Amino acid sequence: MGRKKLKIQRLEDLKARQAKYSKRKTGILKKAKELNILCEVDVALLFSSPSGRPTLFVGQNSTGLSSILKRLSNLSFEEREERRTYTIEMLKKIYENSESEFDLLSLPHATNADTLKLYEDELQELKDKLVEKSKILRDWRNPNNVEDLNQIKMMEDHLIASLNGLRSRRNQLAMEQQIRERELEGNENLET
Amino acid sequence: MGRKKLKIQRLEDLKARQAKYSKRKTGILKKAKELNILCEVDVALLFSSPSGRPTLFVGQNSTGLSSILKRLSNLSFEEREERRTYTIEMLKKIYENSESEFDLLSLPHATNADTLKLYEDELQELKDKLVEKSKILRDWRNPNNVEDLNQIKMMEDHLIASLNGLRSRRNQLAMEQQIRERELEGNENLET
DNA sequence: AGCTATTAATAAGG
DNA sequence: CCTTATTAATAGCT
């Protein structure tokens, strides 16, 4: 729609690209908002403009979104599990094969990108820690991935130590219970 | 655009809602693809249809989105580690339902408050998980805080199982090493 | 799922 | 940023 039909191909001029982007973005946002309201669909939109930072838009009442994100993440995980490939390949696959359907809700006021970046960094850090801890737990449970014999021995020592600690704790608890039972018995004897 | 001007408000009739969704979705997707090509913008879109069908679209070349997706996959990985739950069915469903196209859409400037909120929620979630995991590790190492005798017993069983796994893994590694040494010996004998 | 009458988005040009 | 000629999307029907 316009004075002439526009060929859909990359606009070479940067200025023109940005200008068109600005206009069309507005249009798509409007459409997305309408869709959101008309059809009650939850939406989230991720995008990163070549000249800008990554941004995520989430529909306001998109409670279902988190579940979508979760399922999405599960999808990628399953893909990885199934093929024993790593995240990157999985991501490529998603990029290449899936389409992004999207809706967005426009949310007016801009927050600053720096804050967002901070969150992203913190998130990444936490996730790294979590992954590390998970790995420890996983190796404990299933040591078949551990290749280093010395590490195995160390783990074994730890396990034995833990087991000993656990057993003495169990004994301690058992003893305490015995004491309680005897006290109870004693009281009963007094009552009779 | 249509025979009459449509008021933007939730369509009460389910059928009508689904029908409109289907049509408008197509339109938005087209627009997004155009925007992608015209302006070189990378996008990913998540949405749930009125019938609750989740779909993911990701634009090609959306490098900026990879980190987000990566973290999503990590999240699910962690979740699964922790809870040992599987949602393969769900994943398959998502996969089958996603159509193959590419759309992208872009947004330059505005970040929004919802984005931050999403991150905050995710952060809190991660922190909770980290705390939980740390607690598990701590209890293993030092069971003196564990009060429940049954839990102690469960932990003991787990430890024993892990220990067995560890020992068989150790044996396996040792055996492999022996084999390697013998092969090496054999080669040396041949050489001399 | 198709089909037009209409409305809405927007290309080009101030 | 505006304006407006044109094209594109789609509302109401079938």
UniProtKB/TrEMBL annotation, chains A, B:
Mind telling me which GO cellular component terms the entry cites?
Answer: nucleus
Pfam families under this entry?
SRF-TF
Primary subcellular site in the record, as a coarse category: nucleus
Task: Check the record and name the SUPFAM superfamilies matching this protein.
Answer: SRF-like
InterPro entries linked: MADS-box/MEF2_TF (IPR050142), SRF-like_MADS-box (IPR033897), TF_MADSbox (IPR002100), TF_MADSbox_sf (IPR036879)
Q: Name one GO biological process term.
A: positive regulation of transcription by RNA polymerase II
Please report the name of this protein according to its UniProt entry: MADS-box domain-containing protein
Annotated organism of origin: Gossypium mustelinum
